[in-house]
Amino acid sequence: MRQHVNPLSSFFQQSLPLPSCPELFKDPGLPLHLDIGSARGGFLLEMGTLQKDWNFLGLEIREPLVISAERQKDERKLNNVRFLFCNASVSLDSWLMSLPHNLLERVSIQFPDPWFKRRHHKRRLLQPSLVVALANAMKIQGELFVQSDLVSVIQPMIEVIEESKCFYQSNPSSEFYQDLNPFPVPTERERYVLSNGLPVFRRLYKR
Question: Dihedral through CA 140, CA 156, CA 35, CA 65, nearest 10?
Fold first, then answer.
């Protein structure tokens, strides 16, 4: 599986209509956790098994990973987990605007593609417009969680979030990065990084 795709290519710039929550979930009224960049989907598959009173939606730009994750969801008979193929930077805004009030309670963005070169920074997922769209759709006191194993990735994410003035740090008296993941399940990348004795940089924000 190719690790990166160019989200600015003409193919990924096509806006895709995303199904509504009643089309996605057996019980669409459950609180929604949106995971942007869900990769192979292991995180949401485990979360959906542990927290049956939540719905979980993963968005991923690499379609083969979405197909595989959806197959695993079906095998586990999870009615509260779905995965969709799209470029979140292009297709998510209108979907967020259509969400019922107070339905979106959690958003996670975990280990996004780094795009190290300065000329590629515009390809990074977390842009100011997306932060504002998430804030407008999210329930007050909802949570936005970001993490990465690279300071060069997490710092720009934090800057974009805090410059928006839409979110505040959940525990401002803590260290700049928090040690613990607020979720009971680590991502595949998180497990790999920690198993190699490397640090993970995290921030939890409230709406």
Answer: 170
